[in-house]
Amino acid sequence: SLRVAFQARDEAGRTTFLTSGLTVTIQMDNGESAQSATCTVSYGSGIGACSYTVPSSWFSTQAAGSAIVSLIAKYGSTTVATASLGSVALARSPVLGTLTAVGMSATMAASPRFPSDTFTVVVRAHTGGSVLNSFACNLEFDSEVLEYSSATKSSLYNTPSVGGPLISEGSGLLSFLVTGRDASASDAATTGTAVLLFTLTMRVKSTATANTTSGALSLAVISMVNAGFNQFASDIDGHVLDGRDGIHSTGKLVVEAVATVGAHAYAASAELVNTAPLTGEAVTTDVTVVEHYNRATTASAEDATYACSTEADSILSVAGCVLSLTAAHSAGSAAATVDVQSASGNVSAQVPVRVWYPLSARLNASDGTLQQIDGMLAAGACSSPAFQSADLTLVADFGGKALDTVFGVDVTSLATFVSSDAAVASVSGAMVTGLSAGVVNVTLGNGATAGASTAVDVSSSSVFANITAVAVSSLSWGEQPPSSVAALPVGSSFTTSATLAQVLILEGDSAGVYAWAQYSDGTARAVPSTQLLVTATTPYITLTAGTASAPAKMAIALRASRECGELIDVQWGVCGAVVASDSATVTLDLPQPESLTTTSLSSKLTSPSDAASVSPVSLPTRSYIRALVNFDNGQAVDFSTDERVTYESLDNCAVIESFNYVRVRYSINKSVCTQVRVRVSIPLGSPTVHIEQFLTIPIVYVERLYLAAYPYPSFFGSTSGGATFNPRGTLRKIECTSYYQHATAVATVALTDGSSKAVTSATTFTSSAPAAVTVVGTRLRGTSAGATNITARWASFVSDDYSLAVSNELARMDSLAIGFTGLNDQTLLGSVGTQKSLRLRINFNDGTQFQNYLTDVDWIPPAVLIGLASSASSAISVSSAGILTLLGNHHEQVSITATRACDGSRPVTNKLYANLEPNSGDVDLGSRTRAQFTQVGAYVDVPVRIKANGKLKNFQIDVDIDPSVFEAESCVIGTDWSGIWDCTINSPTSVVSLVGNDADSSRTGLLTLATIRFRVKAATRSTISGTIRDLTQYVNNVEVRSGPTPLFAGEGDAVVSPVAVSPTSSPSPSPTPTPSPSPPTSLTSAQILNLVRNVWKMDSACDVKNDVLGDLDGDGFCSSYDVFAGSVVYLGIELGVVTYAGLCPVIQQRLNVNLDAAFKATDLIYLLYVVSRKLHFVTDVSVDSSGVEAGTSGNLEIAVTLKDYLGQPVTSQTSIRSQLSYLRSVGAPQLVVGSDGGVTAVENHWVLRAVHVGEGVYKIVVHASPFWLPRTFGFNLMLETTNALGGGTDESSRYYAFFGSTAAPYDELGTSFLAYRTIVVGGIYNPSPSPPPAPPPFLVTPYDGTVLGAIVDPSGFLYVAGNDPLPADFGKAPMQFSPYLSRMRVGGEEYWAFLPSNDDGLLSDARIVQLLEAHGRWKEFVTTKETSYELNKRINQQAVDALGL
Q1: Which of 25, 142, 422, 534 has its CA 20 to 30 A from that of 245?
Q2: Residue ranges with strand state E in 1036-1130
Q3: Which sign does the torsion angle of CA 1279, 1280, 1285, 1286 carry?
Q4: In whole angstroms, what is the distance from residue 1382 CA to residue 1418 CA?
Q5: Which residues neighbour 408 within 8 Å (Cβ) at sequence distance 6 or greater?
């Protein structure tokens, strides 16, 4: 990025200018194209900044380039300024190298960085043609310069687990482990020469000093594992790409210090006027310095350490960085310069300042002769005559060097004036007032040095005064002054005009009263408001006296009429004497009233003595009256409370109170007083007009109290005609019970205006025959057959009797209806014990209803009338009170049936579903609502959900089915899980196993983990259940583990029936994501040590460890949590805080599940597949080669013992194959136990298949046909599984070659054959007597100074001898042998050859690597004591003797 700082000034050098509409752009041109960006400009300082990202295409890898930079300023579309900034250099881009072989590269910052800068490091891989599935690498960095910030996953792989950083002696170490690809990543995307692995962010430390660090960071490849999780690369150096060409072993980083590259300065005011000679006060302004830096992201900042100076001493002074203009200065200038310099002297700037100096000044008085005012005494003293006053005006001409003089600038408001004789004339502000006869000289005060003065003559001769008075209500602009004035040209002017107005149209409108004195000498002056005495000649005007800061006020009085003329008299009075007087013309332009509008806030009233005023009728007895006057100018004014309004009750029914309230009288003739009549009137206008209006308000009374009875409880329509009781009213006995119906009493009053009001809540009801009907509140309870009269009493009213009979005639049930409340999609959903209430509606033959018998009927026990039953009480029970209780899942809808309790007749049924929801830590299966398991076509899809109250980190779940009913066809990851995940189906066919692990997970709540598809095989009802093997949550950062435990909410039955399936009717199983055991992100070394040493105790108490295979955490189980524990150990080893050798031997053995004598990422993946039942533990490999002798057909026996994650022998769905590097061209395998699996395509090696012989033991017994030839060969093991149906062979997770294999299908994964063990065919081989063919020529080359010899026998066996054995203690652990190594060319082919000891046989490349890693460089153990000729001669002779040649 390029950052440009600039400063803009106007043509006068000022930094304050109009920024509205201003745009500044930066333009860059590299000769081929131009680019631009918008800049910012600060108001006041003129400092702007442009930030621009240079296109990467402008940087060439051939040579450095350049670009021309310019700035363009515009107002709108008009260009007002341009500036060329010259050219900027464009550095040459490095020609980065590329990986040419298997490995990894880290691309880091190519350009310099500053302290606290961050940069990304992009890690890519060359996979050498293999599919990269998992990997581990370490990043070492200079911890004095860099610190780790964060890591970001690639879209191709799972989130990296980060160990560290571990800081030691200036070096930092980060360990990265990625096990598994993203579910969306294809084989093609993860194969290539630059596969993106992850990106990390590093930060330059804030304490880093400017330097070039050659070893800023380096990369080490720990492991690269292919899709068959075979390690195809390990322990190789990575490469770094930085700002240099090519590819390097370490990264170079240039750190630059943040430095100042320039500064701009500005004055708070760049245009100053030196008024000190006129005022005696210095004029000052501050200079601010803003520094700019070489780091584009460092914002420019103010710096107060700069020093300011100037050579324009006659114009201004500088102290610190404060500029001062004083009376001591003598000139002005268009461009006085202030120099600004940094403390180091390396950075400087200039501030141009424009200074205006008063070249001349003139003081004038508006009246040079102040005369005595006839008949007026001096205010205040009232003992001496008053004299005239004059206004003082000071004007100055300003200019300076290169400035056009501005003439006649009024500076009166800045100056202070003094009189030479205070007894003759006094000065107040800019006004001089005579006191006694004489002459004074008025000059500038306060130390001003300008010589401006004026003489004032105070004369005892008299002048006469008159005044002119006006009343003004408003001012309006004729020509409004501009909101701003252009700064240039100096002295520009504008015109304006204003009009005074008097508008008085409404009562209360006001105007100010002003007066001007006019003297006989022709001068004039405003009269102070405090000296004016204002009186009105009409009562229509009210007055307020003036103050020192406000004029006298007149206002239109209440009851004013339209009037105009000299309505105000104004006198100028001082010391009790009137100096002059005048009258002001005033126009009271009041509108004429036209009409009156009256309204009542209450629509009807009643008398306080009437029951209508009692609750709950509560009619008001008084009302507010509103009166609006409508004028001829269209205005309507509220006069409701105006004292001129008259409110008059026109009869004896009501009275007026509180001025404009009307109240109905207490004692009233109700037959006469049916309304309130009010006359409202007001006299207004000129001439006075009496306007009035009449207002009528109805008076309403209670006329009668009515009583009615309605069914209880009420129901829709129960109070309308068709559903009410008939006039005689009857409460019937309810069938099947001894109980009678109830009713509700309702009382209503009728009002005289025809309206009615319910008063039931305030009414008392009585029964004449309580034995038949009991009254409780408003409830009329039938208790026995008979008749009664019900009476209602409210206020003073008593209703007519209401006849009500109680009859033994039965109210028979016509119909029943069951309803449910609070269900979710027709489902009673929740945990065990969740309850909901039924709704039970009963319709009777007399038209009455119980809308909800179970809650609304409180006098009949529910079980007396209705019987309730559930068709599946183990799933949903129902109480006699209609309470539904959820107890379990159910395979179909549960029927709730209601019948007549007395005989069980008239059954009615409604159905709902029972579906349990999981509590915390439990697992649910199937649909959340409706039926738990539903068959669609030939399949049942079963979602798997878990309820996590904390953050779900790890789970292992088994789903159990009846394999005679269901067959698992697919298992796909759920929408709520994104961590490591694996699902195993049909191993066995009765179980689907789910495994998940994500230590960085923050997911909580109800989470869908997977969806399993089952194909239906039989028509039946079958249970689907399961077990939570292991579950880990973090609740409030505390680990909570559970399991094994049966899943509860998920267990349930499915009713299914097989359906014929076409070949295309079942979608292909969705691919499952590659599993990825992920330890906690960014574990510190302390956290790792605490887990390994204190929590899991992996390096202590070794003699008391349990014997559970795969159990790393010591909980007695092998589960997915052990995969988590293993990954933590892996990071600890990579960081160097844990050693493999320091762990208990049993822990070492459990970590090394792939038998390669080391703990790598492949062991973690293998362990995960063991937990998910796809692979197994190899617990023993035994070899009996005692019968294998050259020239014989003795048997070679290889036996492999397998156990599953539960420690049980593996007896099915598994095969063991072995690749033997014995050539079929030398001899064919003759199988005693096992079967022939063919040969490898390239090497022609034997491939044999073992047979299970019991208790998890898989055996091969074989000999060469016709006999063994003397040679050394190796063998490996290939573990391969299927599901219980023989499927799953397309899953790479179901086959594993220990040490690698070139047999199919492993040859497609790019692995090579490495022997697990070697077999030496001992004895002497006697070839046939026919002369052997001549051996091909061979060439022996030295290896690390060791000279070797070799000979080839007729069978093609290569004998090799070295000149000196290795030390006796070399290689004792874990193997014992004394090998020799040679690289030689035979028949044009190059070979590695080994002469083994009698104990161990042929060494593989892997074993040689182990020896080299364990014991240092090979050459340190080999010495040369014989010449090549002597050695060859001796070796060849020995070989000839041995072979009988």
Answers
A1: 142
A2: 1038-1042, 1045-1046, 1052-1056
A3: negative
A4: 12
A5: 395, 397
Helix (H) or strand (E) holding 1406: helix 1405-1415
Give tens-digit pLDDT for 212-254: 888 999 999 999 998 777 788 889 999 999 999 999 999 999 9
Q: Is 165 helix (H, G, I), strand (E, B) or coil?
A: strand
Q: Peptide bond preceding 616: is omega within 30 degrees of 0, i.e. cis?
A: yes
Among candidate residues 1108, 1117, 1315, the one with its CA nearest the CA of residue 1203: 1108
Phi, psi of 1177 (to 5 degrees): -80, 135
Question: 349, 263 in Cβ contact below 8 A?
Answer: yes
CB-CB contact of 1267 with 1227 (8 Å): yes
Cβ-contact 782, 731 below 8 angstroms: yes
**Half-sphere exposure (CA, 13 Å, Cβ side) for 1206?**
6
Which residue in 757, 848, 745 sits closest to 789, CA to CA? 745
HSE-up of residue 921 (Cα within 13 Å, Cβ side): 15
- Residues 250 and 212: their CA atoms lie apart, in Å, by 13
Q: Phi then psi for 109, rounded to 5 degrees?
A: -60, 135
- Convert the pLDDT of each residue in 950-996 to its tens digit: 999 899 999 999 999 999 999 998 888 877 788 999 988 999 999 98
Strands 773-776 and 742-751: what pairing? unpaired
Two structure tokens written together for 381: 């003293």
- Separation of alpha carbons 894 and 722, rounded Å: 38
CB atoms within 10 A of CB 1361: 21
How many C-alpha atoms does 243 have within 13 Å on its Cβ side?
17
Residue 1411 gets which letter from DSSP?
A: H
* pTM > 0.85: no
Residue 72 contacts by C-beta under 8 Å, 6 or more apart in sequence? 24, 25, 27, 79, 81, 82
What is the C-alpha to C-alpha distance for residues 1197 and 1187, in angstroms, rounded to an integer? 9
Residue partners of 634: CB distance under 8 A and separation at least 6: none
Q: 464 phi and psi, to 5 degrees? A: -100, 150
Cα–Cα distance, 831 to 1074 (Å, whole number): 35
Question: Which string of DSSP letters, residue by residue, matches 992-1013?
Answer: EEEEEE-TT----EEEEEEEEE
Q: 580, 524 in Cβ contact below 8 A? A: no
Sequential DSSP letters for 738-766: S-B-EEEEEEEEEETTS-EEE-GGG-EEE
On whether the CB atoms of residues 332 and 396 are closer than 8 A, the answer is no
Provide DSSP, 556-618.
EPTT---EEEEEEEEEEEETTEEEEEEEEEEEE-PPPEEEEEEEESSS-B--TTSGGGSTTT-
**What three-state secondary structure class fits 1443?**
helix
Type of residue at 631: F
pLDDT tens-place string over residues 1066-1125 = 443 333 333 444 444 456 788 888 889 888 899 888 887 888 999 998 888 888 889 888
